[in-house]
Design brief:
EC 2.4.1.224, coiled coil, membrane, 31% helix, five-stranded parallel sheet, alpha/beta, transmembrane, glycoprotein
Length: 718
């Protein structure tokens, strides 16, 4: 700037002495330089950030084009790693914050090439194809964000999958140079091949401060439970060899061993088992008569006979997976892909994703010292159980092992479940194949006894602005002996509820909850105010139900607490002409749904409806302002595999049940309800509703008996 001032002060004295052509030349040159400086300044100081705007994609940026970063020898080195780290001590969950989708946001650092002071790279291989696939999958997922300020989790673009290719000290220094490192807080590293000769540590040797480690060979000594994530060692054969799924059942061999670099003591013991059991056990090794290369990797031999690998794995019921120099073995992935039950013998090994996967359903884990007894142990497993394990093994591979994308997404989902535990996947979601989820249902409540009568039920009344009918409903419900609390869900954001002095006087607590949006799903929200197990969902215009009828409904629910127990019944039918489902409200001998305008259910289903409803059903209901009752019937039937319980046919007609002023509006209503049923069946992948031909009536309901001797005298009749 000083130079410019001097030039400016001398300029007027010099320019008049210049010739015209020289003056034009210098003015033009000065203008070009000035425009260049202005453009450069705008680019430099325009409000943007490399961190927040650079999307991670190798399609847009070549590894060779990545900026070169030199690491000074004096750069700080992170600490070795804190074995005491847990999510509540070394992870800042507040950075994740609240978001409606309950999903963490992951930021990937832009690609950089780190070298030391003399220009030697920190890695001998650079960016591997596997790590490229992993980062690309994350960048294409819902977890990814390119805004560093929104990120909950940070992933370096430095590839540490294989420790053998790394310079330990320089790699640690490169990590510490990351702008958001902060002692590794909220950073995630992926490593599949830890340690090196001679000891082969079971965790990455690169000092990493507090960073989480997704590791492929953890032992119980190095695994930080609830913090690190144990991942599989990816097998390249997963992408190169297509093994079609084979139906479970008996196979040619009972036990097969295909590993080529196992300890000599183990091989001697396997050979002894082979001698004892003959053709039931196939013991393979590498082929000595084949030249080294890709062909030899896909071959195994036994006494000169050559077998294709991994295809041969499909010919055995059980496949041995022994520890090698490292605990984690890519063989495990190959075995699962083949649908062969892995027999894992690697003491202290933390199985991949064992935080959420039930390995007892897909494998047999045997202590190494029990290797001589392996054949006897496996023979004791029933054939049907073996078939189920074969099926489960194949599904584990398809869902969690088959690609770097599957491994990466599973890792992030596990971390996501820790941060948002109320929206976490259930055991069934992690461990049940999709075909099993809908066909093998069970009661989610596990109630061994009838729920006690003393707690009673909470009546949840959904209302908008029908004050008169609302007060009539409250007055009638308050007469029910088992009522414990009244909860009014005020769904009108443009109008305040009536003053407290205007509400009916009741003997139980009455609470008004104001919602932020007018959504039908608000009636099924798991409010903290609901302290009883039983919930009565009732509309503000169901004024015809008597206290006896409501009390009887509650008594029925106590005997069937995992069911929907309600009054108005409905039916779904298959329309053969249209080739789809339709909604039916005519009085028939069958029922498959009860309307939740007046129905009892367990409060657990509020949680499922709000946080576990499949697909976009909940949002679809709120957008169309219809069919929340049908959605709840689908949910309960799908979870329990049971039909609802319908209470006696009521003698009154409720005007909200027939709110039509014309045949046209009635037709539109039934068409929209039929559309709901078909939409929900498509999302669930099946039709979970069950049709029944029975209902619940009091014992003396129709008997010619004095009313005063009946437990529920004031109930409807046919």
């Amino acid at each position: 700037m000083c130079a410019s001032v001097k030039y400016g002060s001398r300029g007027p004295a010099l320019i008049p002495r210049m010739k015209t052509k020289h003056r034009i030349y210098y003015i033009t040159l000065f203008s070009v330089v000035l425009l260049g400086l202005i453009a450069t300044g705008m680019f430099q100081f325009w409000p943007h950030s490399i961190e927040s705007s650079a999307e991670w994609s190798l399609d847009r940026r070549s590894v060779h084009d990545a900026p070169l970063v030199r690491i000074p020898m004096s750069s700080p080195i992170p600490e070795r790693g804190d074995l005491s780290c847990r999510m509540h001590t070394c992870f800042d969950v507040y950075r994740c914050g609240y978001n409606p989708k309950n999903k963490i946001k992951v930021y990937i650092y832009p690609l950089q090439r780190f070298v030391d002071e003399v220009g030697v790279p920190i890695s001998s291989t650079g960016l591997s194809r596997e790590y490229n696939d992993l980062l690309s999958a994350i960048s294409d997922s819902d977890f990814y964000t390119d805004d560093v300020t929104r990120a909950c989790l940070f992933i370096p673009s430095t590839d540490v999958l294989n420790q053998n290719s790394l310079r330990i000290r320089e790699t640690a220094q490169a990590l510490a140079m990351l702008p958001r490192w902060d002692k590794g807080m909220n950073h995630l590293l992926f490593n599949m091949l830890p340690g090196g000769p001679p000891d082969y540590n079971t965790a990455l040797d690169v000092p990493r401060d507090r960073a989480l480690l997704a590791g492929g060979g953890f032992s119980t000594w190095t695994y930080r439970q609830g913090y690190d994530v144990s991942i599989p060692v990816y097998s390249p054969l997963s992408a190169e060899v297509d093994l079609p799924e084979r139906q479970p059942g008996p196979r040619r061999y009972f036990i097969l061993s295909s590993q080529t670099a196992i300890h000599r003591e183990y091989r001697v013991e396997l050979e002894r088992l082979k001698e004892e059991n003959g053709e039931a056990l196939l013991l393979l090794d590498k082929c000595s008569n084949l030249s080294q290369g890709l062909a030899s990797v896909r071959k195994r031999c036994y006494k000169g006979q050559v077998y294709d690998y991994p295809q041969i794995l499909q010919e055995s019921s059980f496949c041995v997976v022994l520890r090698g120099a490292r605990l984690g073995q890519a063989t495990l992935s190959d075995v699962l892909q083949a649908g062969c039950v892995p027999v894992i013998m690697a003491d202290s090994y933390i199985l991949p994703f064992s935080e959420v996967l039930d390995w007892k359903r897909a494998s047999v884990v045997i202590p190494e010292e029990k290797l001589p007894e392996m054949y006897t142990i496996l023979k004791s497993i029933p054939h049907r159980q073996v078939e189920e394990m074969q099926r489960q093994a194949r599904w584990f591979w398809e869902a969690y092992f088959s690609s770097m994308k599957a491994i990466g997404m599973t890792t992030l989902q596990i971390i996501n479940d820790r941060i948002y535990p109320y929206a976490a996947r259930t055991y069934e979601e992690w461990n049940n194949p999709s075909v099993v989820k809908w066909s093998s249902v069970n009661s989610p409540l596990f109630l061994p006894l009838i729920p006690p009568r003393s707690p009673g039920f909470t009546a949840v009344v959904l209302t908008y602005d029908r004050i008169e009918s609302l007060f009539r409903v409250i007055t009638e419900i308050s007469k029910v002996p088992s009522l414990a609390k009244l909860l009014v869900v005020w769904n009108n954001q443009n109008k305040s509820p009536p003053e407290e002095s205007l509400w009916p006087k009741v003997t139980v607590p009455l609470k008004v909850v104001r919602t932020k949006e007018n959504k039908l799903s608000n009636r099924f929200f798991p409010f903290d105010e609901i302290e009883t197990e039983a919930v009565l969902a009732i509309d503000d215009d169901i004024i015809m139900l008597t206290s006896d009828e409501l009390q009887f409904g509650y008594e029925v629910w106590r005997e069937f607490p995992d069911r929907l127990v309600g009054y108005p019944g409905r039916l779904h039918l298959w329309d053969h002409e249209m080739g789809k489902w339709k909604y039916e409200s005519e009085w028939t001998n069958e029922v498959s749904m009860v309307l939740t305008g007046a129905a009892f259910y367990h409060k657990y289903f509020n949680y499922l409806y709000t946080y576990k409803m499949p697909g976009d059903i909940k949002n679809w209901v709120d957008a169309h302002m219809n069919c929340e009752d049908i959605a709840m019937n689908f949910l309960v039937a799908n979870i329990t595999g049971k039909a609802p319980i319908k209470i006696f046919q009521h003698r009154h007609q409720c005007y909200p049940c027939f709110p039509f002023s014309s045949t046209l509006s009635a037709s539109f209503f039934f068409l929209s309800r039929s559309e709901c049923i078909n939409k929900f069946a498509s999302v669930f992948g099946t039709m979970p509703l069950k049709v029944v031909e029975h209902r619940a009536d009091p014992v003396l309901y129709k008997d010619d008996f004095p009313e005063k001797l009946k437990s529920f005298p004031n109930i409807g009749s046919l």
